[in-house]
Amino acid sequence: MNKEISKFLNELSDNLSIVNKLIIGAYLQFNNIKIKNNKLILSCIQGNDKQTVDTFINLIKLKNGKFDFEDVIHLFETSIPTHDISVNGAVYTPDYIKDYIVKETLNKIRNFDLPDLKVADIACGTGAFLYTVAQEIKIKSNKSYFEIFKENIYGLDISDYTITRAKILLSLLALSNGEDKEEFEFNLMVGNALNYNWNKKIKEFKGFDIVVGNPPYVRAKNLSEETKSLLTNWEVTKTGNPDLYIPFFEIGLKYLKPSGILGYITVNTFKRSVNARNLREYFKTNLFDLKIIDFGSSQIFANKSTYTCIVFIEKQKSNEVKYQKITAKDFLNKNLKDFTRINYNLLNTKKGWILNKPDVLENINKIESIGIPLGDKYPIRNGLATLSNDIFIFKPVDEDENYYYHQNGKLHKIEKGICRDVIKPNRLKTELEIPVLKEQIIFPYYQDNFQANNFDYKPNKKIVFEENYFKENFPEAYKYLKENKVQLLNRDKGKKTKYKWYEFGRTQALNDSGKKLLFPYMAGQPYFVYTDQEDLLLYAGYAVYFDSERELKVLKRILESKVFWYYIKKTSKPYSGNYFALAKNYVKDFGVCNLNENEKTFLLNTESDEERNEFLLEKYKINRKTLAE
Q1: For the chain, first and last CA: distance in Å?
Q2: Which residues lie closer than 8 Å to 189 by C-beta, 6 or more apart?
Q3: Angle CA(399)–CA(405)–CA(410) in degrees, nearest 5?
Q4: Minimal CB count within 10 Å: which of 126, 180, 243, 320?
Q5: 84: which DSSP letter?
Q6: CB atoms < 10 A from the CB of 144, how many?
Q7: In whole angstroms, how far apart are CA 308 and each of 176, 245, 304, 453, 461?
Q8: According to the model, what pLDDT value does residue 442 have?
Q9: Could you tell me the keywords of this UniProt record (predicted)?
Q10: What are phi and psi of 134, to 5 degrees?
Q11: 3-class SS at 510?
Q12: Strands (E), 276-428
């Protein structure tokens, strides 16, 4: 869809009736469809907005040249009120994804003329999946769309305007095929899937034969308190900080008939994420017949960086998970391969599922079994989280004996005594870059040295300044932060009422110091940068701490090896550009092999990457040939 067309509608998105009118009017005109009877469509296109309609249609003629059903669906799903953009989790699902999921699930059905065949989308949005389902049932049966809408398809969504659009979409489908009924009987309901009871809404309900859809993806931090409360009603989201898509597996399966099938396009993070542990346990405990087509870092949704997979679940017992990783390009070209079958008993619910071929799983097991896990042997720490880095962190444009000078719209002088050196590991690749990339951070904390009768005393513990002390001793820094007080108060959506307005948003990393290896959130190859600057702080990255320079430099050799990177590529979260996550959860189980002093000296003194890699491949008992898999 042309960006100018989308922009035109987005500027009107809070006026739902005019947006619907423009989309419907354009579809009818471009496809030469005349409406005589259907009350819903006729009511939507009435009104005195001819100039706006003509402008919109002329824009389509100029920029698009056509206007078909996929254009209607795309604009219905993306032209939403501004207050819904960050909270409803809806995205446009490409038609080839919908077609595949619908056809694969409907292939399980033998008799399409049965009146009690029921297919549902329990987060149907504007009805895109139901539109495809209706088309497919029409092809496979002798039914009219009127009968299909009445007997076979069911939808639920939390927003009344999306259900209205779903009714419009399905009506247009029927009208385009010559069914100009005054009214269609729809089973499309407004309600919250988290507490909706289908048993009370459908007479003699025995369950759905099929559930399809694209569950809403809203991250835990963006959920309302009401939604968080409702999540506790479901086994898979009773604890932790689950994202909104997670309970939709349990909800869909609850309302499926025995031997029914569920087909979703959803994010692929449930395989490994901490907040999906309960979901993995739910799958494993029930031994659901689970099939996953994983797109890895390949992007499916336009203009949205989301990592997705297609999941099919048959409500029957299976000891195996079937898994296939594929690119979007290969999927489009229908180059699906044989599925790898992994026994549920081999999958670790707590640590995350590693879904791969048997020889890869064997290598991962070897790596994790050797020596001591990285997270047990060394402290792995996150960086500072001010929640306003643009205010606290700066690169001085000048300095003198007492002040750093910070250019931020105007020139501010900041007392050196309140500043600390800080580095961003996400930008760092070598030790030589540290002096160049090092910045300053305003650090309104002092070290707690009081020990006598202080049972809470911790070495290096940092205490935030009292405001009067801050104002009197560092007036320039105080004045600068005061100018930004409104932004600082609005951190964390303004929830930080129990903290001082000028302290950092989180307390993490305040007390960390020592020799360390710095490394980024994600990378395309392993970078671990050693520094002996013990007081150097960090943000946007991680650090491994240890007292011994020699030990850290040996560890650097191991972590920059092919063995470690093989492990990360097979177990971590992929990102676009062939990048992989290096979060603690993904690196902590890597086994650090035991080395004698001669072996450590060899790793430190050998300049050849190939020789070091050969040594470590042998040490970890990894066959070089398997590295390419």
Answers
A1: 38
A2: 154, 155, 156, 163, 196, 201
A3: 155
A4: 180
A5: G
A6: 15
A7: 33, 12, 11, 55, 42
A8: 98
A9: Methyltransferase, S-adenosyl-L-methionine, Transferase
A10: -60, -45
A11: coil
A12: 288-299, 307-317, 320-325, 340-343, 372-373, 380-382, 393-394, 398-399, 403-408, 410-415, 419-423
Q: What is the pLDDT of residue 13?
A: 77
For tokens 């890597």, the residue is: 590
Task: Report pLDDT digits (tens) over 349-362.
Answer: 998 999 988 888 89
User: Looking at 54-63, 283-292, 474-483, which range is the least confident one?
Assistant: 54-63
pLDDT tens readout for residues 187-245: 999 999 999 999 888 888 889 999 999 999 888 988 999 999 999 999 999 988 999 99
Amino acid at 289: D
CB 211, CB 265: distance < 8 Å? no
Higher pLDDT, 204 or 155: 155
Q: Could you give the domains of the chain?
A: 3-84 (no CATH), 95-353 (3.40.50.150)
What does DSSP assign to residue 181? -
455 has a pLDDT exceeding 50: no
Q: What share of the chain is helix, strand, coil (3-state, %, to 5)?
A: 40, 20, 40
Contact in structure between 106 and 142 (CB atoms under 8 Å): no
243 and 79 in contact (C-beta within 8 Å)? no
Q: Which single residue is written with the structure tokens 């195996």?
A: 320
The mean per-residue pLDDT over the stretch 46-61 comes to 84
Using pLDDT thresholds of 50, 70 and 90, give the confidence band for residue 422.
Answer: very high
In this structure, are residues 127 and 165 in contact, taking their beta carbons and an 8 Å threshold?
A: yes
Determine the 3-state secondary structure of 622 from DSSP: coil
The pair of three-digit structure tokens given for residue 172, joined into one six-digit string? 């247009």
Taking the C-alpha atoms of residue 94 and residue 111, their distance in angstroms, rounded to an integer, is 28
- pLDDT interval class at 454 (50, 70, 90): very low
CA distances to 501, 509, 544 from 513, rounded to whole Å, are 25, 9, 11
